[in-house]
């Protein structure tokens, strides 16, 4: 191997000070004495004791929805999911900047914060057809050097209440979308069986996973979760299905919670939370103890659903910890991993420790531990992608 960069004075999660030898896009060596004997002419980077961390993975965003790149657009309120869908459609018709431009601007911001992989839901409905998907797929080409992108064909307007959408979901997977989405089988389509039949049929046909938005609450939401888990097992899709939001898990009694968590754990259905506003949310620590895979993601970043969000996963993890009263070092470190290794596993990204042979994709944060990083949320971070520094201090340098 020919060294391309030496990184000195990096701190591992265990607290050891190490050097890393990079050989192009891989870590060739890592250890306290790894730099010994390396040609002094090889470029060097002093990590100044900064913490070496896995890159962030944002496992749930909407590249086609974001309004980043436009002047601030005031939020249009809507007190139900259905009203917000209509408000968003009205707004969408007036937005002049393309999905490519807005989504590209968001990807650049995410990369600047150290997020190197994302899963983007993309609206599929009978008005927009596959246009949003085609735009997001083009971002894989234009921005793939910064961020790896997975796509979910997302029926934001429902499936049964927007006839023709099921066929479009099928066409979306054929056109290159990675997963089939879904949305509130009861709350939006008013037909749990019909909605799940439609989306699982497409997933089964192509052998792809699903990622389903579920806002339906209480016992109804829990029933839908168990239905999703049963169908996951029936189709052999264990480990390939995510339910996003699953607010219901935050409002169940002990017996229903235990029964539902056990089914989720057995089926490998993962739960995503963005720790959203004043609504119940899945208790991530309790779910993890029950063997349910969880992860944290930004979801809406400055769009018709929310004027908030800056794209920084460290900020999102901090919000999660605030909302779930996670304060110990152990809990904060576990929460950090909800934005790195947990979603990486679900998206099929590298999940091993940073060692010789690993991709040279990582962040260096000015913190002594994962807990301090979550508590302080430092912006002064250095982002390595493919063995090169692509961002410092929250700004891209490539
Ligand atoms: Zn979403």
Essential attributes:
Amidohydrolase family protein, Amidohydro_3, Urease, subunit C, domain 1, hydrolase activity, acting on carbon-nitrogen (but not peptide) bonds, in cyclic amidines, TIM Barrel, 34% helix, 5-stranded antiparallel sheet, alpha/beta, binds zinc ion, Metal_Hydrolase, 398 residues
Short description:
This protein has 12 helices and 17 strands.
Task: Give structural notes.
By secondary structure, this protein is α/β, with parallel strands linked by helices. The protein has 2 domains: 5-49 and 353-396, Roll (Urease, subunit C, domain 1), CATH 2.30.40; 56-346, TIM Barrel (Alpha-Beta Barrel). The protein is built from 12 helices and 17 strands. It has helices at 81-92, 99-112, 131-143, 165-175, 192-206, 218-234, 254-267, 284-289, 313-324, 329-337, 341-347, 370-376; strands at 5-11, 17-23, 26-31, 44-46, 51-53, 56-61, 115-123, 148-154, 179-183, 210-214, 241-245, 270-273, 294-296, 362-365, 382-385, 388-392, 395-396. The strands form 3 sheets. The chain has an 8-stranded parallel beta sheet, with helices on both faces. Strands 5-14-15-16-17 form a 5-stranded antiparallel beta sheet, with helices on one face. Helix 2 crosses helix 3, helix 4 (165-175) runs parallel beside helix 5 and helix 6 runs parallel beside helix 7. The radius of gyration is 21 Å and the shape is globular. It starts with a strand and ends with a strand. The model has no long low-confidence stretch (mean pLDDT 96). Bound molecules: zinc ion (ZN). This is Amidohydrolase family protein. Keywords: Hydrolase.
């Amino acid at each position: 191997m020919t060294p391309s960069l030496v990184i000195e004075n990096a701190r591992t999660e265990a607290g050891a000070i190490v050097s890393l030898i990079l050989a192009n896009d891989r870590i060739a060596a890592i250890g306290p004495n790894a730099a010994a004997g390396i040609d002094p002419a090889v470029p060097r980077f002093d990590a100044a004791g900064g913490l070496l961390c896995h890159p962030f993975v944002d496992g749930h965003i909407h590249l086609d929805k974001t309004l980043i790149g436009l002047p601030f657009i005031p939020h249009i309120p809507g007190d139900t999911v259905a009203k917000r869908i209509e408000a968003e459609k009205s707004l969408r018709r007036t937005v002049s900047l393309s999905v490519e431009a807005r989504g590209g601007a968001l990807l650049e911001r995410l990369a600047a914060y150290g997020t190197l992989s994302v899963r983007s839901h993309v609206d599929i409905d009978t008005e927009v057809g596959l246009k949003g998907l085609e735009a997001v797929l083009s971002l894989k080409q234009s921005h793939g050097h910064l961020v790896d992108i997975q796509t979910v064909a997302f029926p934001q307007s429902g499936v049964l209440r927007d006839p023709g959408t099921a066929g479009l979901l099928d066409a979306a997977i054929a056109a290159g979308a990675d997963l089939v989405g879904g949305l509130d089988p009861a709350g939006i389509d008013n037909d749990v069986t019909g909605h799940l039949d439609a989306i699982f049929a497409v997933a089964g046909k192509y052998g792809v996973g699903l990622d389903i938005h579920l806002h339906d609450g209480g016992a109804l939401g829990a029933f839908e979760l168990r239905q999703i888990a049963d169908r996951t097992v029936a189709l052999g899709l264990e480990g390939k299905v995510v339910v996003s939001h699953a607010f219901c898990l935050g409002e169940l009694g002990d017996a229903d919670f235990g029964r539902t968590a056990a089914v989720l754990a057995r089926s490998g259905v993962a739960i995503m939370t963005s720790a959203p506003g004043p609504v119940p949310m899945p208790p991530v620590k309790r779910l993890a103890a029950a063997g349910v895979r969880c992860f944290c993601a930004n979801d809406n970043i400055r769009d018709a659903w929310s004027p908030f969000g800056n794209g920084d996963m460290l900020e999102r993890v901090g919000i999660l910890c605030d909302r779930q009263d996670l304060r110990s070092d152990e809990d904060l470190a576990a929460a950090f991993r909800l934005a790195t290794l947990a979603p990486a596993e679900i998206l099929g990204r590298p999940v091993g420790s940073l060692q010789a042979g690993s991709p040279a994709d990582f962040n260096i944060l000015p913190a002594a531990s994962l807990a301090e990083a979550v508590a302080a949320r430092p912006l002064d971070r250095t982002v390595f992608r493919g063995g090169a520094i692509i961002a410092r201090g929250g700004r891209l340098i490539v």
